[in-house]
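Student: Hello, beginner here. Can you help me understand the protein record under this note? Any guidance would be welcome.
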Amino acid sequence: MVHILASLAFTLVAFTTLGLMAFMLLRDQDRIMTALGLSIEPAPRTAPRRVRVRMAGRWQAVSAPQPWRAAA
């Protein structure tokens, strides 16, 4: 009797888990299809914006500092 109840409880938990996974996948189906590249409609594009770029000064443009010589 205990085995039958445990089996029924396990079956209920398994079906509930499968149902929850299917529900979550169906809810995000459009995002998943877009991520896989299978979406029929293209993703919306944002309008390009102008940005300001400031040139770096001479002291900022140096990528690595000059090595110092050790004093003897």
User: Anything to note?
Assistant: Residues 1-41 form one domain. The chain has a mean pLDDT of 80.
